[in-house]
Amino acid sequence: MNDLDALESQSIYILREAFNRLDKIAMLWSIGKDSNVMLWLARKAFFGHVPFPVLHVDTKHKIPEMIEFRDRVAKEWNLPLIVGENTEALAAGMGPHNGRVECCTALKTEGLKALLASHGFTGVIAGIRRDEEGTRAKERVFSPRNQSAEWDFKDQPPEFWDQFKTDFAPGTHLRIHPLLAWSELDVWRYIERENIPMVDLYFAKNGRRYRSLGCAPCTGSVASTASTVAEIIEELETTKISERSGRAQDKESEDAFERLRAGGYM
Amino acid sequence: MSNTATALKMSPEVSVPHNASPMKIVVVGHVDHGKSTLVGRILNETDALPEGKVEYLKEVCDKRGMPFEWAFVMDALQAERDQGITIDTAQIRFRTEARPYVIIDAPGHKEFLKNMVSGAASAEAAVLVIDAHEGVQEQSRRHGYLLHLLGLRQIAVAVNKMDLVDFSETRFEEVKAEIVAYLNSIGVEPTYVIPVAARSGANIAANAAETPWYKGPSVLGALDRFEPAKPATDLALRFPVQDVYKFDERRIIAGRIESGRLKVGDTLVFSPSGKMAKIATIETWGNSLASVSAGAGQSVGITLDEQIFVERGNVASLEHHVPHQSHDLKARVFWLGRGPLKVGSRYKLKLATAEHVVEVTKIERVIDVEDLANHQGTEVARNAVAEVVFRGKSPIAHDSFVDNPRLGRFVLVEGYDIVGGGVIAETPTDEARNRSTHVTEVPHKVDAETRSIANGHRGGVVWLTGLSGAGKSTIAMEAERQLFLKGWQVTVLDGDNVRTGLCGDLGFSDADRAENIRRVGEVAHLFAEAGMVVVTSFISPFRTDREKVRAINPDAFHEVHVATSLDECERRDPKGLYKKARAGEISYFTGVSSAYEAPALPELALVTEGKSVDESVADLLRYIENSFSLSAREQANGWGL
User: Fold this and answer.
1) Choosing among B78, B81, B95, B335, which should be mutated to test the A contact, i.e. which has the most A CBs within 10 A?
2) Is the Cβ pair A16, B243 closer than 8 Å?
């Protein structure tokens, strides 16, 4: 087994644990590279089936190519897709002009909470990785959220020997993170090996590409000439610029991302 | 001043292979001994920090009017900066010329032991950081002990803050002697002991000019010399069933191979049922190549050539190499619960994919990790380590930790929380109950299900308890006759009858009565396992004795209280025993000179007063038929209809 085989096996183990131990689970699909890889792993884990709903929280500010990709792939892969949005906030005109953290909280966090509550999900699978950001580095694979979907990062349950927290009080729910141990480079090497389809925005055009995808107003592209998966891998092997450097909401204050996550952001 | 030169020199011919898994290193030690600083330094020396990270943190420190610390690199969370301590495990990557690493920075505070364990349990090697000035402290010992308990054998000790003791060789040797003596006493030989000043970077990546007397490797040099963990393919096959899928026409048994290998055509034995079947296929999806074999670490799905009943928690292995199976487990436990672990408490034990309800039957010793002294106790406090014996309601398939760590470790769950972990020492040799060592239960090839289908009813123990003269034997014998006439497999074990043979060596003292009941209980359960309904007729006055019999197999045990009052029994006095007891001719007579503890919650209470024997027998038979008969559906399923 090489390192990608080991990561793949571990992620499949986690997905199967979540499916077996929790009553109502769903997988978050942000259309980004990580959640595309996660979907691929689910199809491997369950032999071609995705036996739970795939959720997309639409902020209506996403880059249009992302929504096109979502609808095409959902059809091709026959995914049980559920799209949700915070209708109220959108009607009230919520946008980054109200403050980036406020906008993320309303459209993503609150949108997601409403979607989870309306379907009664007790577990939601998310494609976050430890190497993305300092806060995510502290996450557990099975990470409990209280009734308000808040994350108590100061008192997390012990997690060892692949024995995950699968018992939890009514009203609380779990976030499950099958990609926690993957690095950005691992993700791209796996995309190359498995030939997993990706949104074109990741590939450089006119000297710029997106390294991380989010909403149009808050996601910037980076200077790059990497126009193929192989070139992206080559680029990542040498870069020292952080992955979320194009994500404006992280930089509102020094602990902006931490506050977002403690409040229930992915 | 320093760079990765040492690492480079040590393995000049090794280029980093693309597909090497990162080695997982845990950094542990007492609070404030400088773990995070060490890690921050390692990241800096290996050029692993994102551009601008150090500058950014320096800026933050300036804004707050505090001096920059390398530890801030790791302490990304607001709460940590404010308190100045690591509160949770963080994982950060770096690489040397030799290989990639994931470093797990584990907190030193005692109350965060659960986080330290969470980090250390998956590590392949450890760095134990000790302050040269303060020397070995409580958490240095506790962490050292836990590393050993978790099975880590590659340990480097970094004697940190050497700059505060003027890089004194004497002081280094003192601290070194102290920690080496402790580690040796728990059977650990630290691989390297390194004098370090994390703040200035001395002996982190290259040997420092300040310690010319030190001839060993730098911290990175030591890490590069550790061996990566090998997948357990050389051990016996252990394939715990995670789930069974029927998404389409295939019935796929899914799970991860924890150790060993399997291939198409192998005959698998499933514990605890002992059922066997051959592997028909190894299933794959997408562009993966069809495979005929798979090994440790792989998550796979297989189909079998026969439709045997298999469920999550079963462990598949190869014939003649099956795991141990027993109700009892003796383990070394580290306890993380808020309240103490207690004798008599029940927990959910999770071992691989199996879950068992277990009761703590004994705390053999509580280990003081400070001085390694053993204490007796009936409780294990938070963050303590102890040797504990558990008894499962059902047999537990397991290995000892030394034979196969993957099946030799478990966690304990109380309520919603994981409250402890344990490594299995051996199959217990509880002196009172079992002096036979190296006993492994061999699974039957005829299982309970098959027997019950052949008999038309389940096996089990109907345990009549009550005063002398209550009517137990009369009711038992008549019930046996009537069930036998209906074609049931039934027998009675009666007090006076077993005392002429099986228990002929026992008297009526409390200890002998307890032993009498224990033997009868074991025999009754053997009959029950053979598929029979066993009605027992014993006064069995003590609740604890009856509960022990129940614990042998709680699912098969039915306690029936023949609840005739003492007055009525004494009035009946069929054998004239009450008269003799009252006259003082019999000592230890239940109800007269010895206590009777009535069951608090029997499965059935038979009131005999005001009823004929036939009516009481009818009450009992109704209960037995309801509890032991197979439903029409079970019978139909059983015969494959």
Assistant:
1) B78
2) yes
Q: Is B540 a catalytic residue?
A: yes
pLDDT digits (tens, 9 = 90+) for A204-222: 999 999 888 877 777 788 8
**In angstroms, rounded to a whole number, what is the distance separating the alpha carbons of residues B392 and B360?**
9
User: Considering B259, B317, B540, B594, which one is annotated as catalytic?
Assistant: B540
Asked if B332 contacts B423 with a C-beta cutoff of 8 angstroms, the reply is yes
Question: How do the domains of chain A map onto residue ranges?
Answer: 3-183+253-262, 199-251
> Is A20 touching B (CB cutoff 8 A)?
yes
Q: How far is A169 from chain B (nearest CA, A)?
A: 7
Q: If residue B116 lies in a helix (H) or strand (E), which one and from where to where?
A: helix B113-120
Confidence of residue B16 (pLDDT cuts 50, 70, 90): very low
Measure the CA–CA gap between A69 and B208, rounded to whole angstroms.
55
Is residue A19 less than 8 Å (CB to CB) from chain B? Answer: yes
Provide the strand spans (E) within B399-524. Answer: 409-414, 417-426, 460-465, 490-494
Q: Amino acid identity, residue A62?
A: K
> What per-residue confidence (pLDDT) applies to B10?
34
Distance of alpha carbon B3 from alpha carbon B45, whole angstroms: 5
DSSP state of B98: S
ipTM above 0.85, yes or no: yes
Of B357, B348, B443, B346, the residue nearest B393 (C-alpha): B357
Please give the angle made by the CA atoms of A53, A56 and A58, to the nearest 5 degrees: 150
Phi/psi at A33 (nearest 5 deg)? -60, -40
For position A84, what pLDDT does the model report?
86
From the number of C-beta atoms within 10 Å of its C-beta (0-12, 13-18, 19+), residue A74 rates as middle
Are A1 and B295 a contacting pair at CB < 8 A?
yes
In this complex, which of A4, A47, A161 lies closest to B411 when CB atoms are compared?
A161
The H-or-E segment that residue A115 falls in is helix A111-119
Tell me the backbone φ, ψ of residue B378, rounded to 5 degrees.
-110, 5
- Binary contact (A51, B286; C-beta < 8 A): no
Q: Kindly report the CA angle at B568 between B562 and B574, in degrees rounded to 5?
A: 85
* Contact (CB, 8 A) for B537 and B473: yes
Q: Look at residue A40 and tell me whether its pLDDT is greater than 50.
A: yes
Q: Which CATH number fits domain A3-183+253-262: 3.40.50.620, 2.40.50.100, 3.40.50.300, 1.20.1090.10?
A: 3.40.50.620
For residue range B360-398, list pLDDT tens digits in order. Answer: 999 998 987 777 777 888 899 888 889 999 999 888 999
Pairs of CB atoms within 8 A across A/B: 149
The domains of chain B, with CATH numbers, are 5-225 (3.40.50.300), 232-318 (2.40.30.10), 326-426 (2.40.30.10), 448-633 (3.40.50.300)
How far apart are alpha carbons B157 and B488 in whole angstroms? 68
Cβ separation of B286 and A20 shorter than 8 Å? no
Name the phi and psi angles at B491, rounded to 5. -150, 165
Tokens of A35: 């959640």
Q: A interface mutation test: which of B62, B91, B293 has the most A CBs within 10 A?
A: B91
Distance CA B478, CA B498 (A): 19
CA B344 to chain centre: 16
Query: CA quadruple A233, A235, A237, A239: dihedral positive or negative?
Result: negative
Q: A8-12, B433-437, B531-535, B552-556: lowest mean pLDDT where?
A: B433-437
User: CB–CB of B76 and A51 under 8 A?
Assistant: no
pLDDT, tens digit (0-9, with 9 covering 90-100), for A242-260? 676 666 666 666 566 666 7
Contact between A3 and B22 using a beta-carbon 8 Å cutoff: yes
Nearest CA in chain B to A162: B352
Facing A160 at nearest CB: one of B118, B285, B413: B118
